[in-house]
Design brief:
By secondary structure, the chain is mainly α. It has one domain. About 45% of the residues lie in helices and about 0% in strands. The chain has seven helices and no strands. α3 packs across α7. The chain is globular and about 40 Å long.
Length: about 130
């Protein structure tokens, strides 16, 4: 039933693709980093590309100035954010805390994502 409700919402594409069950997630707490992690998991991280749908903003990443500012770019590829992603084989859905085929969450990668999103959030407030 909950999956059917998500089909009509394009922003929830990633979430409905990788969400397998309704269950409490150990990746959230009451920090800003946790709130920032929730946004790309549900397709609504307020990147420039996302905001361009509703307002006239340039979509080039304000941190590195090289690519479009999307959630995937910020989390996986942006060279202007700390810490740098070291794993060339990293996958976007795992970085967001979705379970792999064995049902495991890569908590180290989730922590890296939270830290990168926090760095982006702080830097984007100063532009």
């Amino acid at each position: 039933m909950w999956r059917i409700g998500m089909i009509k919402k394009s922003a929830l594409e990633i979430y409905r693709t990788f969400k397998q069950e309704i269950a409490k997630k150990k990746i959230y707490d009451s920090t800003r980093d946790s709130s920032l992690l929730f946004e790309p998991r549900t397709g609504v991280l307020r990147t420039k590309t996302y905001r361009a749908k509703y307002e006239g903003v340039d979509t080039v990443c304000s941190t590195c100035g090289q690519e479009e500012e999307t959630a995937e770019h910020l989390i996986m590829f942006c060279k202007g954010l700390y810490p740098i992603v070291q794993d060339d084989g990293a996958e976007f859905f795992k970085a967001l805390g979705f379970r792999d085929r064995e049902g495991k969450i890569d908590f180290k990668q989730v922590d890296l994502t939270r830290r990168r999103l926090s760095d982006w959030w702080l830097k984007s407030r100063h532009e």
